[in-house]
Amino acid sequence: MLPEPTAMLPAVMPWLDLAGLAVFAVSGALVAAKHRQTMVTLVFFALITGVGGGTLRDLLIDAPVFWVHDPRVPLVCLIAAIAVWATPERWWRGSALDWFDAVGLAAYAVYGAAKASGYGISPIPAAMLGVVSACVGGIIRDVIAGEPSILMRPELYVTAAALASTSYVILTLLGVPLAGPIAALAGFVLRGAAIHYRIALPAYPAKGWDRE
What does the pLDDT look like over 109-134, one tens digit per residue? Predict the structure, then answer.
């Protein structure tokens, strides 16, 4: 009898998943807090941001939707929302949201690629599913909150997720130990550099479009 696909993931991956979930949930709760919403709304935003990308990933790879079968996930989201609600506003000012989002982005990109690989998805689609896992929750969060989408911000975002997920797939194929943490660190460093130094890819040169 073959083992369950998730049982073939490296032992560190479930912890990477929970770490990404927690920081994404905090980032969702912070958006709701910034808009002066109720505790219920903070919990909702924490949940939708934490599970959005992973839900789409699981549906695409025909896996059981992870948070429906794991009671730790709603609990982590609830704790994240309570933590934001109960702590002083000054703790979350400035770029706190961006940095929490960066940690979640890197962790989720790697875990998404790892889980897709565990379900027999080939390397390139697995890397792309890592990006989906990392980005979709934040996109849903911003759309619901009426915020400018993370995809429309100038500094690198999807590129950092792609670096993390692709690095994981390549390092795993090469048999490199600790491929998950190394790949997650690479994605986080790139995203952190983009936040700090405002690194961005060149925009499309819309020559003549502004005259129409």
Answer: 999 999 999 999 999 999 999 999 99
Nearest to 24 by CA among 1, 64, 52, 4: 52
Quickly count: other Cβ atoms within 10 Å of residue 89's Cβ.
9
Report the candidate in 1, 189, 2, 7 with the shortest Cα–Cα distance to residue 115. 7
CA–CA dist 165, 124 (Å, integer): 10
Q: How far apart are CA 115 and CA 54, in angstroms?
A: 10
Report pLDDT for 4: 45
| Alpha-carbon distances, residue 169 vs 9, 87, 129, 160, 175 (angstroms) | 12, 38, 11, 14, 10
pLDDT bracket for residue 207 (50, 70, 90): low
**DSSP character for 7?**
G
Q: How far apart are CA 144 and CA 30, in angstroms?
A: 13
